[in-house]
Design goal:
This protein is an alpha/beta fold. It folds into two domains: about 5-25 and about 270-370, D-serine dehydratase-like domain (Lyase, Ornithine Decarboxylase, Chain A, domain 1); about 30-265, Alanine racemase (TIM Barrel), CATH 3.20.20. The chain has helices at about 30-45, 60-65, 80-85, 100-115, 125-135, 160-170, 195-215, 230-235, 255, 350; strands at about 25, 50, 75, 90-95, 115-120, 140-145, 175-180, 225, 245, 275-285, 285-290, 305-310, 315-320, 325, 340-345, 355-360, 365-370. Strands 1, 10, 11, 12, 13, 14, 15, 16 and 17 form a nine-stranded mixed beta sheet that branches. It has an eight-stranded parallel beta sheet with strand order 2-9-8-7-6-5-4-3. α3 packs parallel to α4, α4 (about 100-115) packs across α5 (about 125-135) and α6 (about 160-170) crosses α7 (about 195-215). The longest helix is centred in the middle third of the chain and has 24 residues, at about 195-215. It is globular, with a radius of gyration of 22 Å.
């Protein structure tokens, strides 16, 4: 991992304005508030919190989530799980199927030193593959049956298929049946509050039917895990999930900031993650160029929003790999070269994966730099 050119600025008053940019900026005061809010919510609802590291890819942040009460973490990829396990995090759920002989060996290596490793499966062939790989090992692989909640990315497609696969896991040597994984990603960004609540109720009913069938078959799921930043409030109110996998609540972004939430400060999260950029050219009235383009922002979804450093109603436009345009509502306005511009990320997860470090600030002072440990660990 490269060393940040801003390392020498840690602890210097007003150092935020001196940072070489573009940088991923984390406001620690807001971050810590968000962290505490969900931890208290989960404790009050008697829900296990297992936040997703795909959002932050950071050992430091995962450890802080666990210190705040999380039982463990989720990882989307085996590579992320290796990073977290190597850092001493014991309870890890890999939320994508692990397929292929070479990955099996890596998975089994993690299983030897992560005391509570969980893996999802949605195919009988994959269960057999996992079981065969683990058959002569000291520890069995703990499996969750992945259930399709409507996104069609993965998961068994029916109640009967869930029961059949759970039964196969339960009777197969080398693997252990522990429950159900059910993530409804398509619901998380439904903007209207009531529409999102009703959609979550329908998916909870679907999952309740699956769990009821498993119970009737003598396959009671110990773990029922899923949910996200957009639906945690609704999912925790039902009697189905016992684990919440929220991730983006720590940071928020333009996508999640567009979603309508209940008017309760305890259930609302503020933006803590930004890209700090610098105006590098300003030769035209009403227009300026900053040093943050496609290599600093995930380009799909809403455009990055301007949080500070430019007049109200300033709009961002991609202008290449390293650059973006600021369009000012006042077409006579001229920016100053060198001024800093604070941008809200369009989608926090893939934006984080573009940077090597978090530059952590309190107020206007850089107080720490954390590595994005699992950056690029997509395999």
């Amino acid at each position: 991992m490269s060393v940040s050119p801003n390392l020498d600025l840690i602890g210097i008053p007003h150092s935020r304005e001196l940072l070489d940019t573009p940088v991923l900026l984390l406001d620690l005061d807001i971050f810590e508030t968000n962290l505490g809010k969900l931890a208290r919510f989960a404790e009050g609802k008697r829900q296990v919190l297992r936040p997703h590291t795909k959002t932050h890819k950071s050992v430091e942040i995962a450890q802080r989530q666990i210190a705040a009460g999380a039982a463990g973490v989720c990882c989307t990829t085996l590579g992320e799980a290796e990073v977290m396990a190597n850092a001493g995090i014991d309870s890890i759920l890999i939320t994508s199927p692990v397929v292929g002989a070479r990955k099996m060996e890596r998975l089994l290596a993690v299983n030897q030193y992560a005391a509570d490793l969980l893996v999802v499966a949605d195919q009988a062939g994959n269960v057999i593959e996992l079981a065969a790989a683990a058959a002569d090992r000291e520890s069995a692989l703990k499996l969750l049956v992945a259930v399709d909640m409507g996104i069609h990315r993965m998961g068994v497609a029916s109640v009967d298929a869930a029961v059949e696969l759970a039964g196969l896991v339960a009777k197969t040597e080398g693997v252990e049946y522990h429950g159900v994984h059910a993530y409804a990603g398509q619901l998380q960004h439904i903007i209207d509050y009531d529409e999102r609540r009703q959609a979550a109720a329908r998916t909870n009913d679907q999952l309740r039917e699956v769990c009821g069938a498993l119970h009737s078959a003598g396959l009671e799921p110990q773990i029922v895990t899923g949910s996200g930043t957009g639906t945690f409030e609704f999912d925790a109110a039902q009697d189905v999930f016992n684990e919440l996998q929220c991730g983006s609540y720590l940071f928020m972004d333009s996508d999640y900031n567009a979603v309508h939430y209940v008017d309760d400060d305890n259930l609302r999260f503020e933006t803590s993650l930004f890209v700090l950029a610098t105006v590098v050219s300003a030769n035209h009235a009403g227009l300026a160029t900053i040093d943050a383009g496609y290599k600093s922002f995930f380009p799909r979804g809403p455009l990055p929003a301007i949080a500070a450093g430019a007049p109200p109603e300033t709009e961002y436009e991609f202008r290449g790999d390293e650059h973006g345009h600021l369009h000012f509502a006042d077409k006579t306005h001229r920016a100053e070269v060198g001024q800093k511009v604070l941008c809200v990320t369009s989608h926090c997860d893939p934006t984080v994966n573009l940077f090597d470090h978090y530059h952590c600030v309190r107020g206007d002072t850089l107080v720490d730099i954390w590595p994005v440990d699992a950056r690029g660990r997509s395999a």
